[in-house]
Structures are given as structure tokens and as C-alpha cells.
């Protein structure tokens, strides 16, 4: 048995509780890794300096890895449609299903949470199929 820290990890919690399958879990982790690869790299405080007199700043540039990751995210966004926001809220913003359903346009409650959870699992299944996991 392996101990995992599941605090602030809704995807890990759902997998631990067997609310999602292995393919959905792997798809969620790949989505998170792709998001990180497409994002801006962390910079050290020494790299953040004010450029004066028209001097050129340090450019990170866009690597092939970042471009590929951004294209994948765009493809997945088109595949998921308007429900992409739900996937992003849970996988990237680390919101629980209850937090997402309570913050949405629906009335808060058990029915809204159940529906939101069902919708999220369906979106993970779509991602898993697109990524070749299931």
C-alpha cells in the first residue's frame, strides 16, 4: 500500500473513493500535466527586473513542448465544449464538485451536486477516450 496526500486534490480523492475509474484518473492527470507544460514557467526573483531606456527584457520564448501542449488543450477544449470550464475548475483550480455546483447558476443542494459530479465524470470519460486510455 502506498500513502498519498489527498488534501487539495479532488481528482485523487474521487479515485480513492472509487467514484472514477483508472482511465478517467489517468486522463485527469494527463490534462493537469499538459496544462502545466503549456503554462508559463516559474521565474526566479533575479529574473524579474525593470528594464529601462528601451532595453530588451529576458524572453522565455515559446518552446515546441509549450506549443504542443497548447494545441492539445485547444483540441480538448473543442471536444468538451462549454463544459470545459467544469473540468478546468476541478482539475486546475482544485475545486470540489460541491464547490463547483454551489458556485454555479443552479440552486445549491444535493441534486445539483449529483448532476455536476455526473457531468464531470462524463467529461473525464470523453477525455480518456480522446487520450487513448479507454
Our Rg estimate from Cα atoms comes to: 18 Å
Distance between the termini: 25 Å
Q: Would you report the number of β strands?
A: 0
The poorly predicted ranges are 41-48
Main sheet specs: none
Which term fits the overall shape? Answer: globular
Give the H and E element order: HHHHHH
Q: What would the average pLDDT be, to the nearest integer?
A: 84
Query: How much strand?
Result: under 5%
What is the structural class? mainly alpha
**Number of alpha- plus pi-helical segments:** 6
Structure in words:
The chain is mainly alpha-helical and 134 residues long. Helix content is 58%, strand content 0%. The chain is built from 6 helices and no strands. α2 crosses α6 (110-131). The longest helix has 22 residues, at 110-131. The radius of gyration is 18 Å and the shape is globular. The relative contact order is 0.17. Residues 41-48 have low confidence and may be disordered.
